[in-house]
Write a structure and sequence with these properties.
The chain is of the alpha/beta class. It has three helices and four strands. Helix 1 packs parallel to helix 2.
Length: 98
């Protein structure tokens, strides 16, 4: 699920269903990130998002000391993150429409 890429920091990949369990796995990885780390969460291969999983992700992003970018969220889920108070997590363009 996680790998170190040269010059890019850590990447956390998820696929399939992004539910609360999957989000908790990502949250554990984010919680262990060093404050000076750069972490990318790649959700481009997730086929189904559960809103509660996105809420767990929002909590983890808000608490993470590292710089985090999230890739692959649909517009609805990016909006949900904003509603939950998460701002400043750049998405590098791999978005599907809502």
């Amino acid at each position: 699920m996680t790998r170190q890429e040269p010059g890019e920091g850590h990447t956390i990949h998820r696929d399939g269903v992004f539910d609360a369990s999957a989000a908790e796995d990502v949250a554990r990885c984010l919680a262990s990130a060093a404050p000076d780390a750069q972490v990318r969460v790649d959700l481009t291969h997730v086929r189904e998002f559960h809103d509660f999983g996105v809420a767990v992700l929002a909590r983890a992003l808000a608490a993470c000391p590292a710089r985090v970018s999230v890739r692959g969220l649909r517009q609805h889920h990016r909006r949900l993150l904003r509603y939950l108070g998460v701002t400043g997590t750049p998405d590098d363009g791999a978005n599907a429409p809502a």
